[in-house]
Each structure stands twice: as structure tokens, then as C-alpha cells.
Design a protein that fits this description.
Structural class: alpha+beta
Protein name: Molybdenum hydroxylase
InterPro entries: Se-dep_Mo_hydrolase_YqeB
Order of helices and strands: EEHEHEEEEEEEEEEEEH
Number of domains: 3
Shape: globular
Distance between the termini: 38 Å
Number of helices: 3
Low-confidence stretches: none
Radius of gyration: 19 Å
């Protein structure tokens, strides 16, 4: 399995042992490792927790020489070296070497004038069966997916920008996708403004750290 965004290819690897060879090929290795066992084996110089879980799921400041946390749930100087703001707005991408970023409000950032309604949440628990794919244009009231035959309808019209993997087990109320009301299909397959801001901040921290050595 692989995915390509703006010419950059990421491939799923079966083991952490394939990581370095994949990088040498100019590709990004993706490893499914919920517990993070590969971190100790790979001994990275830099560790970035980009799970965006709004809480710390176990990342520790001693796991690498430089540990960066994205979003709320981390304390710079305690469980990570640096925290980066991920909330849309004035402070998006801001770097914190002490303390925490803004707390999670539970309200998604506004895109194209829409906030909560742009998110797709499971109406029931069970396996999800998508009826559309990322990039499709959907209309308000249209059934986007089904969970155990319970329809998941779009609350707004726009382009389906995110959708959880088919046959994934979901719980009622769980976020399973989102709709972009701006209606530009190309946005689904390019790096977003938010991702560029956060990614740029991570690069800034890494470069600053390297310059100290």
C-alpha cells in the first residue's frame, strides 16, 4: 500500500527493519505500531508525536534527544522538549519551549464558514461501509456511509475530504470523516495550509536544535 501527496510517496512497511532502506529510496516508511515499540529499536535523533489525540498517549521526553509534541496534552519541558500549537487561528504553528498550548475546546476549527456541521460522526456502533470516496462531491442530506445499515448523512454540501478506512469498527459519535464546504476537489490531494504551518514549525524547531550543536 502506498500514497502520494505532491510527489512525496509514503509506503506501508511490515517491520521497523525496513524503515532505513525505505528512506534511502526517497520514500516515507509508514509502520503500524500502536504501542510505539519501534522507537527504542530505531533510536531516533528526533521524535515527533503527531497523533493529534488531544492528550499524551505515552510519549516521554527521554525517548529521543529531541521530542516534539503537537497540540494539547503535552507540557514542554516535562514530557516533551517542545510543543507546537495546532489550533486554527492566530497562534497556529507557534512554538512553546515551556508550558502548554491552548486546551482542547471540543469545537472544530472553522473552514469555509462551517465548524461542527462539516464533521461526519458515526450514528451507531459497528463496521462502517462508505458509499462515497475522498474527493467526491456530496450534497446536504446525502448518505455518505452506513454503519450496520444505519445511514450517515451529510449535514452540509461540499467535497468529502476525509473518511475512515472501509470496514473499520467505530463507536457512536466517533469522528469518521469531514466535508470541505469550499468544494475544491484538489484540496483533498495537496498539503493544507494548516499542515504546512505545523510542518514548518516542526522544521523550525529541528533546524534550531541542529544549529546549537
Amino acid at each position: 500500500r502506498k500514497a502520494i501527496v505532491e510527489g512525496i510517496e509514503a509506503v506501508l512497511i511490515p517491520s521497523w527493519k525496513k524503515a532505513k532502506d525505505t528512506i534511502k529510496q526517497g520514500k516515507i516508511p509508514v509502520l503500524i505500531d500502536p504501542e510505539g515499540y519501534c522507537i527504542e529499536r530505531l533510536s531516533p535523533a528526533i521524535l515527533v508525536d503527531a497523533i493529534l489525540a488531544k492528550r499524551n498517549l505515552g510519549t516521554k521526553i527521554d525517548q529521543a534527544p529531541l521530542v516534539i509534541g503537537l497540540g494539547p496534552g503535552f507540557t514542554a519541558g516535562k514530557d516533551v522538549d517542545v510543543v507546537i500549537e495546532t489550533k486554527r487561528g492566530h497562534s497556529l504553528g507557534r512554538v512553546y519551549y515551556q508550558g502548554q498550548v491552548a486546551p482542547d475546546t471540543g469545537v472544530p476549527g472553522e473552514v469555509g464558514g462551517e465548524s461542527k456541521r462539516r464533521l461526519l460522526r458515526a450514528p451507531a456502533k459497528g463496521k462502517i461501509v462508505p458509499l462515497h470516496q475522498i474527493g467526491d462531491l456530496v450534497k446536504v442530506g446525502e448518505v455518505v456511509a452506513e454503519i450496520e445499515e444505519v445511514p450517515l448523512k451529510a449535514e452540509i454540501s461540499g467535497v468529502l475530504r476525509g473518511l475512515i478506512y472501509p470496514q473499520s469498527w467505530v463507536t457512536r459519535g466517533m469522528k469518521v470523516g469531514d466535508i470541505d464546504p469550499r468544494g475544491v476537489r484538489e484540496y483533498c490531494f495537496t498539503v493544507s495550509d494548516k499542515a504546512r504551518s505545523i510542518g514548518g514549525a516542526v522544521l523550525e524547531v529541528i533546524c534550531a536544535n541542529l544549529n546549537k550543536k
